[in-house]
Amino acid sequence: IKRDSKFATLTQEHVKYFQGLLGSESAVLDGVSKDASEDIEPYNSDWMRKFRGHAQLVLRPGSTEEVSKILKYCNENMLAVVPQGGNTGLVGGSVPVFDEIVISMQKMNKIRSFDDVSGILVADAGVILEVADNYLAEKNHIFPLDLGAKGSCHVGGNVATNAGGLRLLRYGSLHGSVLGIEAVLPDGRIMNDLVTLRKNNTGYDLKQLFIGGEGTLGIVTAISIICPQRPQAVNVAYFGLESYDHAQKAFRAAKTQLGEILSAFEMMDGRTQKMLRDVTGRKMPLEGEHPFYCLIETSGSNTDHDSEKLQNFLEHVMEQEIVADGVMSENQTQFADIWSCREGITEILGHWGGVYKYDLSLPIGDLYALVDETRERLTQAGLLGDSESHPVVDVVGYGHMGDANLHLNIPTRGYNKDVEKALEPWVYEWVQQKNGSISAEHGLGVTKKPYIGYSRDDTMIGMMKQIKNLYDPNGIMNPYKYI
Ligand code: FAD
Ligand code: MLT
Ligand code: ZN
């Protein structure tokens, strides 16, 4: 792709305007800020180190009014922008493609209010997810979203990507739990829909456009979200299984026997667990190796009741030979240790220099077949083999099995065009044939933009483009991405 010449390039006059508006500490220019050690490089490169932009300017507004003035000015001067939260996105959406101005939300980091009767939290977009959850823990509540990047990602970024995470099975999607949004449109108008109402059928539900909008329609400046009571009893179990079929049986049994307390059902194949062990040198919760592993979490209100239920479940699935081996957490340390076997996967997959990531929704019965077929395909193409001369390290699968969301990952010894050609669009065709989704929870960003047609028809893509043109006619919001 080429830089769109309709966008202006940054001038001294633009910079002067922004420094006048925000002060030089919040309008950071190409490495030279008030604090001379500050470098803008981290804003230009993504979590995977796969994408690199060339922004010369980073703006860090401290209020909704400042965001409004910034966007109005950018829109009038044809300056393209990229909204940025914690910069943990996995589709290249949070960094510039060329010289777009980065608008970082990190200074808008206040909790605005919390009502402990309704459980409704109102927070600035730049509040870090873990900070929000720790705040809620003190009030005996829980943020209805949890994911491995919680220490860095922003609640605004979570909403902008419509992140799914580890407990969607229990708490549902942000499309349901987010009750209100305050957002700034490209022309500077402030959409004040920061309501704290559970029910509100007064016209089109416009805030939904910003949930999963990936910063293409405006900037989310605050959210209101309904948060459940924090469960008193949380347990986690880790199982080794013989096959994917056994994992499906375990899922059915978990729904039958643990029903109302089940809060996560995650799947990791044996290859991811072996990699985790080899790369980190850590001890795994179970001895021996199994082709598949599942992680089951329960959350309820009575410790004895829940532990007993999980214990009975464990006995049942072992007796029925659904699972080969299993372990239950007995304290907080073991609880965290088991969860790290799942949450730690993302990080180690980058160990060899490159990783091709596919985040897919598929019919649950077909979920793992794609991983096997991909491995077969890359082996036949001579890209995967026993020796280190092959570019592909392995083909692995893990994910939110309870939501039928597979993460197909292909770690490689650096990024490689032949590997990419063997995978795309083949993976997307496979998903299309199963009526799946090519983007379950990570979004489209730059990586998935060319492939949206595998999951959406022309009529729907046309409607999306109409919406984009209506609210962002100059196209300044996060260009070159999404649609
Ligand atoms: P960023 O990466 O900064 O931005 C993401 C997108 O949102 C960009 O397009 C950006 O322009 C836009 N954006 C950001 N803030 C705003 C705003 N205030 N207004 C408008 N647009 C905005 N995702 C899942 O769904 N489930 C997981 O389990 C999961 N686990 C992860 C684990 C790890 C280790 C990592 C690194 C990532 C994981 N992700 C997961 C990816 C996920 O999308 C994010 O971590 C998170 O939702 C992004 O939030 P962020 O604040 O970092 O947003
Ligand atoms: C996860 O579920 O671990 C995240 O979505 C990140 C990833 O896909 O690696
Ligand atoms: Zn995920």
TrEMBL record:
<keyword id="KW-0809">Transit peptide</keyword>
<dbReference type="Pfam" id="PF01565">
    <property type="entry name" value="FAD_binding_4"/>
</dbReference>
<dbReference type="Pfam" id="PF02913">
    <property type="entry name" value="FAD-oxidase_C"/>
</dbReference>
<comment type="function">
    <text>Catalyzes the oxidation of D-2-hydroxyglutarate (D-2-HG) to alpha-ketoglutarate. Also catalyzes the oxidation of other D-2-hydroxyacids, such as D-malate (D-MAL) and D-lactate (D-LAC). Exhibits high activities towards D-2-HG and D-MAL but a very weak activity towards D-LAC.</text>
</comment>
<keyword id="KW-0496">Mitochondrion</keyword>
<dbReference type="InterPro" id="IPR051264">
    <property type="entry name" value="FAD-oxidored/transferase_4"/>
</dbReference>
<dbReference type="GO" id="GO:0071949">
    <property type="term" value="F:FAD binding"/>
</dbReference>
<dbReference type="GO" id="GO:0046872">
    <property type="term" value="F:metal ion binding"/>
</dbReference>
<feature type="domain" description="FAD-binding PCMH-type">
    <location>
        <begin position="51"/>
        <end position="230"/>
    </location>
</feature>
<dbReference type="InterPro" id="IPR016169">
    <property type="entry name" value="FAD-bd_PCMH_sub2"/>
</dbReference>
<keyword id="KW-0274">FAD</keyword>
<comment type="similarity">
    <text>Belongs to the FAD-binding oxidoreductase/transferase type 4 family.</text>
</comment>
<dbReference type="InterPro" id="IPR016166">
    <property type="entry name" value="FAD-bd_PCMH"/>
</dbReference>
<dbReference type="InterPro" id="IPR016167">
    <property type="entry name" value="FAD-bd_PCMH_sub1"/>
</dbReference>
<protein>
    <recommendedName>
        <fullName>D-2-hydroxyglutarate dehydrogenase, mitochondrial</fullName>
        <ecNumber>1.1.99.39</ecNumber>
    </recommendedName>
</protein>
<dbReference type="InterPro" id="IPR016171">
    <property type="entry name" value="Vanillyl_alc_oxidase_C-sub2"/>
</dbReference>
<keyword id="KW-0862">Zinc</keyword>
<dbReference type="InterPro" id="IPR016164">
    <property type="entry name" value="FAD-linked_Oxase-like_C"/>
</dbReference>
<dbReference type="GO" id="GO:0051990">
    <property type="term" value="F:(R)-2-hydroxyglutarate dehydrogenase activity"/>
</dbReference>
<dbReference type="InterPro" id="IPR036318">
    <property type="entry name" value="FAD-bd_PCMH-like_sf"/>
</dbReference>
<keyword id="KW-0285">Flavoprotein</keyword>
<keyword id="KW-0560">Oxidoreductase</keyword>
<dbReference type="InterPro" id="IPR004113">
    <property type="entry name" value="FAD-bd_oxidored_4_C"/>
</dbReference>
<dbReference type="GO" id="GO:0006108">
    <property type="term" value="P:malate metabolic process"/>
</dbReference>
<dbReference type="GO" id="GO:0005739">
    <property type="term" value="C:mitochondrion"/>
</dbReference>
<dbReference type="GO" id="GO:0004458">
    <property type="term" value="F:D-lactate dehydrogenase (cytochrome) activity"/>
</dbReference>
<dbReference type="InterPro" id="IPR006094">
    <property type="entry name" value="Oxid_FAD_bind_N"/>
</dbReference>
<keyword id="KW-0479">Metal-binding</keyword>
